[in-house]
């Protein structure tokens, strides 16, 4: 096999993997938005909770399952899987909370009144919830999401660059909006 063929095959594999990752990220970010708003409805009797983005997506919920899907395979020891289901979402949540607070001087959630919390960004009770939700996601939800991807994979190959562009624009707009808001609050 010549190098040009190998290079084209590698590019095709990368594009397919990137498209699949973008699909998972999009679906799980949407599920996260639904989960957060349903939780807010139950706890505060109001469905809509202010979001970093304008659209119905919570990127934190896109990144954690995406990482879990790639790190927890069917061959992964169950104790390692549970540990990863605890660590990955907790680390993503802490990093997200810390970055949002440092960059925008705003805390989107605050666990400081809950036991075993760290800087209000994470706490043990929610980390335990992440384990349960992560296992449910890996065992029940992800197989359905994977099947749906396989059903629309060819169409998605054309859509995912548009979706990536949407998230880029949404992210830039959110940074501008929240930076302006943080600046106006501090002055």
TrEMBL record:
Entries under InterPro entries matching the protein = CmpB_TMEM229
Q: Name one Pfam family in it.
A: ABC_trans_CmpB
Transmembrane in keyword set: yes
Superkingdom of origin organism: Bacteria
Q: What is this protein called?
A: ABC transporter permease
Coiled-coil portions = none
Q: Which UniProt keywords apply?
A: Membrane, Transmembrane, Transmembrane helix
From which source organism is this entry?
Cytobacillus solani
| Keyword Membrane carried by entry | yes
Q: Which residues cross the membrane?
A: 20-39, 51-72, 78-100, 121-142, 154-175
